[in-house]
Design brief:
alpha/beta; eight-stranded parallel beta sheet; 14 helices; about 45% helix; binds ligand TUI
């Protein structure tokens, strides 16, 4: 399964792991890399020195490339942007904003830059700014989301740019990978399925909540604040959506979710915590290793594509 993305990144399979906050730590990133995909350390809102340590730990576990995802809403984003250069990271993905201000530094250091975008306009802007590829992420995704669906966004982005496109949002098996390739993508990025991976250091309550989730068990909080976030329905989302409907202030809503992703991922509080996951959670039935996930998905896609 060779595409411009596998060539660009020097990976065996066209599979990228999402840079999930608290979830995408070095054990998961190294396991994905070792299995032939692109593993990512999610810098999210971790202190910059913790990100540096994570990069070094990943390198101890694998010789294969491990990238870093930088969440641009993080006030420390600039420091993390420099650390990836200092540590010799070869691939960076970005989320939740415009990484234009870091582009020159990364390009000069030979870092491959793959911004996650949620619109055609942002994809074109990123291509002009020198991005090596873009991830077109549909609203089916978990966490911070845009408005367009993967089915509509991916072909429109693929038509609008010449750089390779990675599809994300609602993909967790070989049918999704095959469909993404048909839509014009040259790889997929998956988050939800990897957060249930055996190597993901995620509380079992969180993994079980995702495995138990059905097709319509996610909600989007924060539409009124301009930061829509998809997570599995629980006591927190019910309270949040009720407050939002009552016109609660940004501060009140922030207060309800501050630190709650960590509480869910690390402490297993899936009642009051934030259980970010995509709409494809309903497809995921069991915990598997990263190698089983990647081999299963690519083999199924290859089989389907040969039969079509
Ligand atoms: O970034 C993500 N997913 C995330 S980030 C995150 S941490 C967080 N936690 C609570 C509240 C907010 C964030 C959890 N999940 N995915 C990539 C992504 N990027 N999705 C959508 C976008 C995006 C949106 C707007 C990219 C660019 C953009 O441009 C806006 C601009 O600056 O013009």
């Amino acid at each position: 399964m060779k595409t411009r993305i596998t060539e660009l990144l020097g990976i065996e399979y066209p599979v990228i792991q999402g840079g999930m906050a608290w979830v995408a730590e070095y054990h998961l990133a190294a396991a994905v890399a070792a299995a032939g995909g692109l593993g990512l350390i999610g810098a999210a809102s971790a202190p910059p020195e913790v990100v540096r340590e994570q990069i070094r730990e990943a390198k101890k576990l694998t010789d294969k490339p491990v990238g870093v995802n930088i969440m641009l809403l993080n006030p420390n984003a600039e420091e993390v942007a420099r650390i990836v250069v200092e540590e010799g990271v070869k691939v960076v993905t970005t989320g939740a904003g415009n990484p234009g201000r870091f582009m020159e530094m990364w390009k000069n250091a030979g870092v491959k830059v793959i911004p996650v975008v949620a619109s055609v306009a942002m994809a074109k802007m990123m291509e002009r700014a020198g991005a090596d590829a873009v991830v077109a992420e549909g609203t089916e995704s978990g966490g911070h989301i845009g408005a367009a669906t993967t089915m509509t966004l991916v072909p429109q982005v693929a038509d609008a740019v010449n750089i390779p496109v990675v599809a994300a949002g609602g993909i967790a098996d070989g049918r999704g990978l095959a469909a993404a390739l048909m839509l014009g993508a040259e790889a997929v990025q998956m988050g939800t399925v990897f957060l249930t991976a055996r190597e993901a250091v995620v509380h079992s309550n969180y993994k079980q909540k995702v495995i138990a989730a059905k097709d319509i068990d996610s909600e989007v909080t924060g539409r009124s604040t301009g930061h829509p976030v998809r997570c599995i329905r629980n006591k927190m989302t019910r309270e949040y959506l009720k407050l939002e409907q009552e016109g609660a202030s940004f501060e009140e809503l922030e207060h309800l979710t501050l630190g709650t992703l960590r509480n869910a991922v690390v402490d297993g509080d899936v009642v009051n915590g934030t259980v970010m996951a995509g709409q494809i959670a309903g497809l995921i039935k069991e915990e598997k290793s990263c190698a089983e996930i990647i081999r299963g998905i690519t083999a199924q896609a290859q089989d389907l594509l040969e039969r079509v």
